[in-house]
Design a protein that fits this description.
7 helices; seven-stranded mixed β-sheet; about 650 residues; about 30% strand; mainly beta; eleven-stranded mixed β-sheet
Amino acid sequence: MKFLSRPSLAVSLIKNPAALPGYASGFFRTIRLKFGWPKIPLKNTTHLVFGLVWIAVFGLCSPVVAKCLTPAADITDDGMTTVTDIQCGILLAVAYLTSDDPPLPGCLQVPLADADLNCDGVVNVTDIQISINFVLVIPLDSALDKDNNQCVDFCEVDSDGDGTADAADCVPNNTAIYVGAPEMCNGWDDDCDGFIDEVGQGSTSLSCQDTTVCNGKETCTPLPANLGPTITEIFVDPAVPDIQWFEIWNPNPQKLNLAGYLLEDGQGTKHTINNSGPLFVRGGGHIVLGTLAAAVSDSGPYVNYTYSGISLATPPKVVILRNAAGTEIDRVEFDGPQFPQAPTAPIGLVDPSANNNIGDLWSETPGTPGGPNADIFDMQLCVAGIPLTCVDDVDCTMDGCDDETGCSFAPLDAICSDQDLCNGSEVCDPKVGCTAGIALSCDDGDECTEDQCLPTSGCVHGPKTGPSCVQLPQGAVCALTGTSGQTVDCVLRAVRESKQTPPMVGLQFALTFDAAIMQPSGFVDDFCTMIAGSEVCSTVDVPPGSLYPSGHDLLFFPKTISGWNGAGSVVVLNLSDPESPVTNGYIGAGKTVGDSAFITLRVQLKTDVPKDSPVYVYAVDVKGSTSKAEKLSGNVKDGIMVLGLPSCTGSA
């Protein structure tokens, strides 16, 4: 099988076994096999100056992608590529021989990452060789530069197409992992910054959210702080047992130097990691260690370090990692009955935070060497939130929770109603509960009506009998008395003939009167508003004012009311709200229900009019209209204009 795995930034692109004394084997042989270089023996360490050109130094661990310089390999930034650039590269290599984090030589005038000429994430022998070639004006080998643009192809390739070049991509075979990717709660480093599941990043917690506010805020549980280097993937080729490799994961944000660590197999054979310098595993990253057969195999993964002398294929199948002091850091005895038996593919750890020596935690995988076992991971890192408690202890609200906005407390006015219209409309205040309504005032201002309030109907106005209340003649809408020059009011009323009659939204009629005794002076209405919880009313002229509360306009002819000579025509319309009724009154059980008054006509008496001989204002030609433009016919009864749908007469 072919594993699509690329190198970590912390290790060399060249597959490096332990350093051996001859160029014909080990590290140098691997370079020759991969790049087709000639066999040049190194006799002894006295060839140090020449040897430095060939020593692989794993000293650079930078998340910054290198770029191709112009001129190529000009790390001294003097505008040309000369032996000075080669010497500067050698000084940089020597510096990393003595320290993991040495001071940089003063000759380096470009970012450290730009001295990495082949973009493998480290400054090593290949970079120095490339520098020599550029000084000698030798084009890059086609194995490194297929498009012949004198820039190593690896500096330009993006294997997984995630927008981050492989040289900067900590896991180049996973499209979801790249520099700047949103960090998710999944147990690995998504954005290549060395940190795993940072709680401080909003995307980490957001990845746990189920988009339902009512379930509370889900959170991400960080990996245990006491985790150390962990073996997370193993492969032994059943057809060619010498092809074997395993993966080590560094769960900590600090880079880990494996130089000097010991590898041990089931027979107790040990191998000391000797990389002629540090062998870093980046923070949160993975490294693959394998045999030379795995390193040079076309079907093998990218091997960051090749070992020899130990075998994972010989029973008992065990791989042990010890630090330089010999202390055991990790072990996996992977031939136990609980482990996948006779696997033909790699086996991977499904939960790297758990004990990796438990076989049930391993599973066959297509193989993700150099990256997390994302295809088989089974870690529950997201923690459910605490569901919202949506109880407000207010009896008249419906307590609930909206998935997007959270708790909701909808007021239910019906719960507050005492079913008595006379007390006004009780409402539910979401904060304090039911609040009392404003009691109805049923006084219509007419001394000849009996005003009362019925719990189920509201205000009712019936005729009042007695010596002070005269019986109005047919068609009369009011009776007036007073002294000469006095202004008296005539309240005009209109109702529907029954509750079932459609409301009147328009009204027309003509008023007649004795012009020798009286003269209309205008129309007025009471305009009311709530101030500090109390209803405050004032009298306004109509026009220019409108009727309250219906909003109707009053039109009449003659246009100057003082010019009315015994008669005038009136139209009541609402041009802004054609569905608003003139009044809400109607006749029920022989009585007026609701408020029937809609306007007051003011009249000035020209002569004295005694109480026992009142004068009258009449309404004639009463007509109306419903909101659907249906005709309403009317007449005057007991001083009130009564309108209803006309009766159907005649024959077909």
